Amino acid sequence: MESLPVHAQVVRLPDGTYTYADAAHLPVQQQAAPQIVHQHIHQAPPDRTVQRIALGSGVGAGAVAAGVYFGPLLVGVLAAIAANLAMLAFLAAVLVWGVTTLVKSVGGSDGKAVAKAARRSRRR
């Protein structure tokens, strides 16, 4: 009896018969590449809870559409107004500081007396 190679495999020949073959002499079988899964992640749909509540309470679709359109506009306008008011308040503070400094430096003894009187009136 013939000794078999250590890594012998049973293979089927094209004529249908079986034989032993050395694994080192068999053609290398390519393993299938892993399957690539394309997953598309979409942005979540907008939250329409407010519109549903408004429509459910009897408000018409036109009013809901106006709220959807003018809501962000109103927020933008209010933010612009707040920025303008903040800028005006800063400008007023700078002007008051400038006038106070000018009166102290130019006014001589009268300016110092006025500044002293103003400090006293603030402490009370």
What does this structure look like?
The longest helix is centred in the last third of the chain and has 46 residues, at about 60-105. With about 120 residues, the chain is mainly alpha-helical. Helix 2 packs across helix 3. Helices cover about 55% and strands about 10% of the residues. It contains three helices and two strands; from the N terminus they run ββααα.
Quick description:
The chain has 124 residues and is mainly α. The chain has 3 helices and 2 strands; from the N terminus they run ββααα.
**DSSP summary, beta strand count:** 2
**Which runs of at least 5 residues are low in confidence (pLDDT < 50)?**
none
**Largest pleated sheet:** 2 strands, antiparallel
Derived from helix and strand composition plus strand pairing, the structural class reads: mainly alpha
Q: What is the rounded Rg?
A: 44 Å
Share of residues in strands: 5-15%
The SSE string, one letter per element, is EEHHH
Strand order in space, largest sheet: 1-2
Mean pLDDT: 77
Estimate percent helicity.
Answer: 55-70%
Number of helical stretches of at least 4 residues = 3
Shape: elongated
Distance between the termini: 122 Å
